[in-house]
Amino acid sequence: MEMNGAVASSAILVMGLVGLFSVALPLGLALLFRRRTGGRTRFFLLGCVVFPLFAMGLEAQGHRLLYYGVWSQALNSSIWLYALYGGLMAGIFEECGRWVAFRLGRRWTQGPGDALMYGAGHGGAESFLLLGMTMVNNVILSLTINRGGLPAVEELIGPIPEAGMAAITSLAVTPAALYLWGAFERITAMVVQIALSVLVYAAVTRKSGWYWFPAAILLHAAVDVTAVAAGAFLPIPATEALLAAWAVALALLARRVYLQEKWKKS
Length: 266
Known about the structure:
By secondary structure, the protein is mainly α. The protein has 9 helices and no strands.
């Protein structure tokens, strides 16, 4: 496969801006929450640590143990089974990580503002690792392509497998505006992560609120199932609209729980 042209400068610029946005969004929210709610920075940092540990560490190990043989064949043959499996795994590991974090930080918490700070950190780590790093890699590859084409890319990263070749060549034909959907998706994902953090916080701090923990797992799974299934059948705008609807619904639910926690503390 050969490259058909260079990567547009506008696309490289948008990639870079989206990459910066992936970092600016969680940091901006952390500053806002700290000023408006008194949330503590340690919970933001705790979220930054817990996400990669549970979602990219423990969950990845879980996939290695479960995703093989006949079971993996069944999952790959059905988008619905694959979406359900992926959604439940993400929900279980990430919400367990949240629960552990709030249990460990229970003695430090001064109110539900800490849940918002944790959510900004948890979602911020996800934003940087999934979107920010991708944009950084894309910018580096794009500049390398424009400098010397595929030979320069191979000099940078070594022999390119066929799957990787398709991804690299797509950089030259992807419109700049398409990368903006990544920023929009991170906004909705951040809202979801913050909302779920509020629910798990309530499960840990309330004796009668235990049910918010399993609810968070199921809601997280439902959002991810929607993302995978809709992404397989619908265009990007429709998929993002569905995820935005989930984000709004969870934000309204979390607001009610947050206010209950705030009144309890006052």
